[in-house]
Amino acid sequence: MIVIHLNAFLFACGHHRAAWRHPQSTVERLGDITYWEELARIAERGKLDAIFFADGHTPQNVADGPRWFFEPLTLLAALSRATTHIGLISTVSSTFFTPFHAARMLASLDHMSHGRIGWNVVTSMFDAEARNHGFEAMPDHDWRYARAEEFIAATLALWDSWADDAVLNDRAGAWAMPERVVPVNHRGEHFSVDGPLTVPRMPQGHPVLFQAGASEQGRDLAARRAEAIYAVAWDLEVAQDYRRDILRRVREASRSDAVPVMPGLVTYVASTEDEARAKQRELDELLPAATSLRQLASFIGQDCSDWDLDAPVPDLPPLETFTGPKGRYATILRIIESERPTLRGLLGRLAAGGGHCTMVGTPASIADRMEHWVRNGGADGFNLMPPSLPGSLEDFVDHVVPELQRRGLFRREYESATLRGHLGLTRPECRRG
Amino acid sequence: MIVIHLNAFLFACGHHRAAWRHPQSTVERLGDITYWEELARIAERGKLDAIFFADGHTPQNVADGPRWFFEPLTLLAALSRATTHIGLISTVSSTFFTPFHAARMLASLDHMSHGRIGWNVVTSMFDAEARNHGFEAMPDHDWRYARAEEFIAATLALWDSWADDAVLNDRAGAWAMPERVVPVNHRGEHFSVDGPLTVPRMPQGHPVLFQAGASEQGRDLAARRAEAIYAVAWDLEVAQDYRRDILRRVREASRSDAVPVMPGLVTYVASTEDEARAKQRELDELLPAATSLRQLASFIGQDCSDWDLDAPVPDLPPLETFTGPKGRYATILRIIESERPTLRGLLGRLAAGGGHCTMVGTPASIADRMEHWVRNGGADGFNLMPPSLPGSLEDFVDHVVPELQRRGLFRREYESATLRGHLGLTRPECRRG
């Protein structure tokens, strides 16, 4: 039997960059914790595996729209008290944090939530973020991945510094056994940390490690360390290629565990295809054309300010001749080739989820496509990226989830109370040095 | 009219080192978030100004008893959702954190709690903690205080990086005004941070700064920066000296604000003096004598393992001749001189609150003494250190608080919804560079 895993990736007013401009948007509530509690409860009503937060360390261009508000670890702590079963995944940057802080906060959260925490390891991207953490610019890719590797090793060691049975609560004797709470004495290129942690061993053993490996080093890191993987796949073929590659690397790393691969997925759901397309168009039309065209110009390396918004996008030069960043350019070429969109349609696609897959349609047609991806090796689940919140998340939970449940592809009730349980992952042994 | 400020300093099973050994102790619940929620609600029922958490980065001797469990920032996030009015104060170490992380998490919490957050700045103490954060040993006192000074400056600058009116939520225009969200470009000896923060300006302007300055540098830092001050005072005379000194330094720093000074206070409350003393003795008798005697030996620089536990403590050599750390030794001399305790009584005093004041008695007699301290320049309030939890906190809230309220010394209802409001502090202006 196929079981689909579903995360809700919650971001500001939604993943569509113009979502906050909608008259009914939640933009006034971004600093209101009850807004995030409501979203978490909608996801939990849908029995999703987890909610997930990205993170950034610079506000970027605040005129264009909101990106960040609450810091994700404090946010997840609050949300752990508004929910009972759903997993709670936070991004923590291995470039900007240090292992002791990350290990301690995530451990605290895993206790608080009774075993529902996941950690999405990222190495961060922008110079402006690096300059908030003492760097002059973002350290290069190799350095960041070497640090991430060491960061994970040190963090796992700290999480293993308390044996499962270390705490005795023996009122006439010892609170905990000193010989079961041991230093880790990590000495590496990037970190020096003695341990032990201040927090006893966690309900899940340790939080579930997520990673989104894209580059060669990222894929290798994910294959060696990640217990679940986020992916970026515009279409099934890309998804299959990525999943095949990453699972090969997992096997080569001598791991026998099943590592769920979850591509991002933007959905516009309605009771007819036309209505679903209208929902998408409504958001696309809120995009300020000038800003979007300037951004597209930077992606494709040519001015497009006088192109007709409602005409098909003109043909672009082939990938081989393009000298800018190729990944996004390749995605743009694929969108144009497969969908022949108008210029406004292309801007809308790029404004919601970037290179991630978008599915527009009825609950049945979207469930068909999701099932097709899962049955054909493209995914073990999806990282849902609702274009507008709470609407797109509610549409998915109330209409697509029941359709997946009817097909036996998704749980009707939680069968576990931990994120590991939802994902079918085993509790790791405590490995003492 | 005199108004007393009251914080509840929540620590493990209570501040008495043997509290966890009591048959009814909460030691099994330290990792259960509902235990901390219950404590926070008891304090809120008593209309206290705030609850307060210390922090440490090493578990110390885990056989002797529990010290830490939840990390305090994630803990406060959860507690902000279980309470509505009470202030929430976390310790954050300026030696182990960096300004961007601290500013961002505390800002997130201030939004989440609608303006109830306080930050107790500490420079940390132990080599074992330093070795969890990349140091070989704890950096020296001067270095730590120079770093703390710069840490506070950079953090305040980040908190001012968003103007109060920066966010517009203008759906047809800008989310926020870029010219009102500005870099801080801090370049110092210890930190380099560009800003701006990712979090808009907070309900309180910024969290309330607490400090517990003891050394010369600590007192100067507190006088320049703290908005409220924790103190250590064994008796009224020490409290008066400290408060007089710190308020002189506040004036010398050209500050006109009233800075509440709050000494720590351990209380044993019961309906008769005898019952109160019996409560204290019950905890003292749970102390493992051998461990306590070893500790006392280290404090006084001589072996005391064969002294009689139930006889008065023998006279000790005068302070001038003692070559170890003088502060604690002086406190021990004062306890012996003023109370002529048995050895067991002395061990008990040292095991609950260390050099802080202890009051044992009826609600009226304790309220008398608190009032005396406040009317005679010893304190603007107290940082309550319940020796056992939840019992000692409940005793105080249910019996001493009503007595203080009857005397018009303490609020009957919250008159504000922010920590600044409770403490009578003004909301700071946003100072843009």
TrEMBL record, chains A, B:
> Could you give a GO molecular-function term held by this entry?
oxidoreductase activity, acting on paired donors, with incorporation or reduction of molecular oxygen
Q: List each copy of the Luciferase-like domain by range.
A: 12-378
* CDD domains cross-referenced by the UniProt entry: Nitrilotriacetate_monoxgenase
Q: Which parts of the sequence bind FMN?
A: D55, T91, H141, Y145, S215
SUPFAM superfamilies reported for this sequence: Bacterial luciferase-like
A Pfam family the protein falls into: Bac_luciferase
User: Does this UniProt record's set of keywords contain Flavoprotein?
Assistant: yes
User: Which controlled-vocabulary keywords does the entry list?
Assistant: Flavoprotein, FMN, Monooxygenase, Oxidoreductase
What stretches pass through the bilayer?
none
Q: Which family does it belong to?
A: Belongs to the NtaA/SnaA/DszA monooxygenase family.
Q: Which NCBIfam families does this one have? A: FMN_nitrolo
Please state what the protein is called: LLM class flavin-dependent oxidoreductase
The major lineage groups are:
Bacteria, Pseudomonadati, Pseudomonadota, Betaproteobacteria, Rhodocyclales
